[in-house]
């Protein structure tokens, strides 16, 4: 299993390749707000572990294993964003919240959260019921102040 830091890199590399067709060390450094030398180090580590192939002047290519893992990591991030949005978390918190929790949940938890997202998405009435509870709780909070 990749470490949280390796996961961040794989996720970002997968997204860059998906969006631009390639991932350069400088693009990865910028996206993750780290020094290019840290990127080079991590990329070499990921190469050693067969997630990608790195050639200094030709750039990097994900292996089948790297693609599979990267795809799952991007899916996990997007699912967690959908989930937080769905349960009514303020947009301003969503990205940082997901970055904070994504590495610390089991794949079982991810799948169950996927069920919950599906449960709500399949029926708008369920979302309305949740919103009703939230309005009630908000009103109670104001009353308690
Ligand atoms: Mn992420």
TrEMBL record:
Means of activity regulation: DNA binding is strongly activated by Mn(2+).
Record has Lipid metabolism as a keyword: no
GO biological process per UniProt: intracellular manganese ion homeostasis
UniProt entry tagged with the keyword Metal-binding: yes
Sequence positions that bind Mn(2+) 1: 8, 99, 102-103
Binding site for Mn(2+) 2: 11, 77, 99, 102
Domain of life: Bacteria
GO molecular function: DNA binding; DNA-binding transcription factor activity; manganese ion binding; protein dimerization activity
Cross-referenced PROSITE patterns: HTH_DTXR
Keywords recorded for this protein, A-Z: Activator, Cytoplasm, DNA-binding, Manganese, Metal-binding, Repressor, Transcription, Transcription regulation
InterPro entries, A to Z: DtxR_MntR_Metal-Reg (IPR050536), Fe_dep_repressor (IPR001367), Fe_dep_repressor_sf (IPR036421), HTH_DTXR (IPR022687), HTH_tscrpt_reg_MntR (IPR022897), Iron_dep_repressor (IPR022689), WH-like_DNA-bd_sf (IPR036388), WH_DNA-bd_sf (IPR036390)
Start and end residues of each HTH dtxR-type domain: 1-63
Gene Ontology CC: cytoplasm
Cellular compartments annotated: Cytoplasm
Annotated family: Belongs to the DtxR/MntR family.
Subunit annotation: Homodimer.
Function: Central regulator of manganese homeostasis.
Protein name stated in the entry: HTH-type transcriptional regulator MntR
Organism: Alteribacillus bidgolensis
High-level lineage: Bacteria, Bacillati, Bacillota, Bacilli, Bacillales
Name of the gene this protein is made from: mntR
